[in-house]
Amino acid sequence: MKYGIALFPPKNIQDFANSYRKRYDSHYALIPPHVTLKSPFDADDQEVKTIVKELRKIAAETDLIPLKITKFSSFYPVNNVIYLKIEPNETLERLHKQLYSGIFTDKPEYVFVPHITIGRDLSNAEYADVYGQLKMQTVHFEETVDRFHLLYQLENGSWTVYETFRVGKEQE
């Protein structure tokens, strides 16, 4: 089965992202607004048990996760993806690094750029028009997240939560 690891931003950020995603993101119906911490990977039932144990350990060692969103940005010219840029921070960087080390032997396909996708699969003309408008807007959110999620993909391509991991240091 295919799994992934993500965190979901607070509702106010999700609502803001969805106001754009419903029009510009072809994956709108498949998954809520999220920050991908680990790209999709395959695992069997036994491997998932080991992964869940490891994720519990990682969560217990992780601080609250700050999210500071400062602007719209883009992965152009690599692809026509428009996203909400999350300022990199030590907690997010460390969490991402842990999800690609230890029992997680795969390597990330791309450099980690924390973001929430709001548009994808746009034609060149649509991308230029939409991004041209969005990049002039002021965006500012500062929130914290206290959990991340192991997700799995259903047959219809949508993603659902397999297990939630509350980050632990503040709970002691």
Can you describe this structure?
By secondary structure, the chain is an alpha+beta fold. The strands form 2 sheets. It has a 4-stranded antiparallel β-sheet. The protein has a 4-stranded antiparallel β-sheet with strand order 5-4-3-6. It has helices spanning 11-24, 45-60, 90-98, 124-134, and strands at 2-7, 35-42, 65-74, 82-86, 115-119, 141-145, 147-153, 159-166. The termini are far apart. It is globular. The protein has 4 helices and 8 strands. It has a single domain (2-167), classed as Cyclic Phosphodiesterase, Chain: A (Alpha-Beta Complex).
Our count of helices gives 4
Rg from C-alpha positions? 16 Å
Q: State the total count of DSSP E strands.
A: 8
- Helical residue percent band: 25-40%
Protein name: Putative phosphoesterase HNR31_001748
GO molecular function, one term: ligase activity
Enzyme class: hydrolase
Active site: 34, 115
Structure characteristics:
172 residues; Cyclic Phosphodiesterase, Chain: A; 4-stranded antiparallel β-sheet; 29% helix; 31% strand; globular
